[in-house]
Design brief:
The protein is an alpha/beta fold. Helix content is 31%, strand content 23%. A 6-stranded mixed sheet has the order 2-1-3-4-5-6. Bound molecules: inosinic acid. The site of inosinic acid has 16 residues, from strand 3.
Length: 190
């Protein structure tokens, strides 16, 4: 089965491919015209917007991932705006650390909402995955992407960016959502 992964983020593609490596699914990226305006007001809406945009271009089964980091002391920010929170990824990390400088409660979670559309563009399945943790005071690690260097997953002593790819993929929000999608895909009559 071929599924378009509605993203321009190659890190996401890599993680999804790795998590699904034992399945009979080939993920492909949408054509370069794929550039949807993510103007939804929830992860669910943006996930649908991305899935629909890729489906219109390809008319294939499409899976979209909208994800972000939600920090409790920042009332859930950057949340939906994780990608647009500041300029470079380093500036985004610096901004989070600065905003949390005087905060005792550093709890946070990664959220991922995945939307699966069929070839006709109908919603077949929506899944939400979370990974709970907290924001460290000093960034550490170079693996993964995005906010991984400042995120300490619950029960771990290393940041997400210090974990190996396999260790991250065991506990991540993306893994959690994708497990639900995989269970659904197994029920489909191919
Ligand atoms: P999206 O591509 O619009 O869903 O934006 C997601 C943004 O959230 C990314 O650019 C990252 O900044 C952040 N993000 C999502 N998932 C992860 C992750 O697994 N690790 C670190 N940051 C993430």
């Amino acid at each position: 089965m071929e599924i378009v992964l509605a993203t321009n983020n190659e890190h996401k593609l890599k993680e999804v491919e790795e998590i699904c490596k034992n399945l009979d699914v080939k993920f492909i990226l949408p054509p370069k015209e794929f550039n949807p305006e993510e103007n939804g007001i929830s992860f669910e809406e943006n996930s649908y917007i991305k899935a629909k945009a890729a489906n219109i271009l390809t008319h294939k089964y499409t899976l979209a991932d909208d994800s972000g980091l939600c920090v409790k002391a920042l009332n859930g920010a950057p949340g939906l705006y994780s990608n647009r929170f500041a300029g470079t990824q380093q500036e985004k990390i610096d901004k989070i650390l600065k905003l949390l400088e005087d905060k005792d409660d550093r709890s946070a979670k990664f959220v991922c909402v995945m939307t699966l559309l069929d070839k006709e563009g109908n919603v077949k399945f929506v899944a939400k995955g979370e990974c709970k943790g907290s924001i460290v005071k000093t960034q550490k690690g170079v693996n993964g992407f995005g906010y991984d260097p400042v995120f300490l997953p619950e029960g771990k002593t290393l940041t997400m960016a210090e974990l190996s790819e396999d260790e991250k993929n065991e506990i991540s929000h993306r893994r959690n959502a994708l497990n639900q999608v995989i269970d659904f895909l197994k029920t489909l009559d191919k």
